[in-house]
Amino acid sequence: LADMSHMKSVNPFLIVSAILVLHSQLLFALVFTTRYLDLFTSFISLYNTSMKLIYIACSYATVYLIYMKFKATYDGNHDTFRVEFLIVPVGGLSFLVNHDFSPLEILWTFSIYLESVAILPQLFMISKTGEAETITTHYLFFLGLYRALYLVNWIWRYYFEGFFDLIAVVAGVVQTVLYCDFFYLYVTKVLKGKKLSLPA
Amino acid sequence: FRKGLKHDEL
What we know:
By secondary structure, chain A is mainly alpha-helical.
């Protein structure tokens, strides 16, 4: 369910109508690229490999569409969040706190940490403009829901498989918490047929 | 080029 929710939110064709922030989409492309380098080193399942390839392809297609096709409608004035303020601390943290000090593992850790905050430029734009297109809110809802569903999955795996990945869990909790405000607005406004707009 | 751990999740 989490993967399907994630899949729905990475669909590049959504951006035909959603107003997505280029900076967030560049961060997601970086997230998938650094996380799925293990495509070259380990095979888990056909499902796992295909999903990784789809996520990578979708993230680059989205960046391409925003950058090339919708350059005219892309409003850089609202996309002012400084991504280096995310990438630099996250990069430093992944060197300091990781499971194993190896190149692939540090990149995986970087990816996990970066994903937890990659949506901030998008949320920042919404807080600045004070509103969001309904299609954009659906995109955000599924992107947030996906990690929340993983939290449930991790509780399950902890009890039934003894699996526990502290880095993924902490980052997943942070990621989900960042969406809480948005989830509240989505349920109280968008699901009741109103447009998402913030009080001035 | 050392491998990372085996991560079975997406």
